[in-house]
Amino acid sequence: MLFTSIYYIFFASSVVLYGAGLNTSTILSDSLHGLFMPLAKVMFSILFSCILTWLIMSNLLVPLHILDFYPLVALLVFLIISTILETVVRITTSKVTAEFSFSYLIILLSLNESLNMPEVMIISVCSFFSFVVLIPVIYSLKKRIMLVGNIQPHGNRKSMILISLAVIITILAIGNISWLGNR
């Protein structure tokens, strides 16, 4: 369980391998204040959607031999849960926390790469934490680039951030040496 957690947070994280949440993390990292509510809403919507979709898959789709429809079921479950949580957050705090692509990709990743309910929960939580770990890194990269300034007169700060992230992602991917065992 510890190996799986470390693997999905750092080496095979959804952000590193698939780029899920990369654009969202660059937007959320503008300020670290006020991130708790959007991140909590995303976390609960991912976790509840994964659990409910897994239950529907194992109790309904597998016995009917229609498991190919699980992305549609996952989408419908996620939309319902996300809408309910978004309504609760808007009523209580009057903040908009809507986010779709990252959450849905994490749900599909968790359901694809798991064999049982505990694995679904571990993979979804660890994939979310890989996203949360990346936000302060991007925030510090943005601050560092703003302090240094542009190297070229027509340089783009966003492209510098993405290049820096590509270097970080490459360094993390080098740590995954599982391909050495296939000799």
Describe this structure in words.
- The chain is an all-alpha fold and 183 residues long.
- The protein is built from eight helices and no strands.
- It has helices at 2-11, 14-18, 22-28, 36-61, 70-93, 101-112, 117-148, 157-174.
Would you spell out the secondary-structure blueprint of this structure?
Layout: H1 2-11, H2 14-18, H3 22-28, H4 36-61, H5 70-93, H6 101-112, H7 117-148, H8 157-174
Helix pairs in contact: 1-7, 3-7, 4-5, 4-6, 4-7, 5-6, 6-7, 7-8
SSE arrangement, N to C: HHHHHHHH
The geometry reads as globular
Q: In which range does the helix fraction lie? A: over 70%
Low-confidence stretches: none
Number of distinct helices: 8
Mean pLDDT: 83
Binned strand content: under 5%
Q: Work out the number of β strands.
A: 0
Category by helix and strand content = mainly alpha
Separation of termini? 26 Å
- Quaternary structure classification: single chain
From the alpha-carbon coordinates, what is the Rg to the nearest angstrom?
A: 18 Å
**What kind of sheet is the major sheet?**
none
